[in-house]
């Protein structure tokens, strides 16, 4: 029997992590068309609202049901404005490990939202889901993503040479692929200092009943 992640809503002091909803389509498409997202991820460019809707209504639910991972919207608690996403992928239920990635919208950067969302997800995985390992991979030149990994307590395990594609946008708007290294990071339950106290500070988590 395939294990799956539950429908979940995770609350922190400033954020709520929840399933993506069709109301997120315009903001999601705008976020994915950002130059930094295009440079460091494999997100297709340009990214249309139809593509965003397909991800929300079909790709994300299929990913969860098949047990491969989980896609979460990151929204501000007070305004409900979409400020990013957290994605779990390549989940191994026997090993209890998964790969985590995150994207923060250009209008929400510099607020510490990536660290807050990633840390809350890690506490949920290690606590309620009893996972034993979270892995992250960052392109060698993506210093912002590396800083997030370091701040939440990840350990750098090494380099996968020539293992990823990054993109550069020319003045005419076209994108060019270039090869780069991946830095591999891991986070284990014991890497989180004061885990119980930090989990309490996030506000906890609850079932989410409105999954599409």
Number of helices: 6
The major beta sheet can be summarized as: 9 strands, mixed
Percentage beta strand: 25-35%
CATH topology: Aminopeptidase
As laid out across the biggest beta sheet, the strand order is 7-8-6-5-4-3-2-1-9
Give the domain tally: 1
CATH homologous superfamily identity:
Gcn5-related N-acetyltransferase (GNAT)
- Average pLDDT confidence is 91
Strand and helix order: EEHHHEEEHEHEEHE
Structural class by sheet pairing and helices: alpha+beta
The coarse overall form would be: globular
**Nearest-angstrom radius of gyration?**
17 Å
Instruction: Label the CATH architecture.
Output: 3-Layer(aba) Sandwich
CATH class: Alpha Beta
In total, the number of strands is 9
Low-confidence stretches: 195-203
Helix content: 25-40%
Task: Describe the oligomeric state of these chains in a short phrase.
Answer: single chain
Distance between the termini: 22 Å
Protein name: Acetyltransferase
Keywords: Transferase
InterPro entries: Acyl_CoA_acyltransferase, GNAT_dom, Ribosomal_N-acetyltransferase
Pfam family, one: Acetyltransf_3
Summarize it.
The protein is of the alpha+beta class and about 210 residues long. The chain is built from six helices and nine strands.
What keyword list fits this structure?
globular, Aminopeptidase, alpha+beta, nine-stranded mixed sheet, 212 residues, single chain, 6 helices
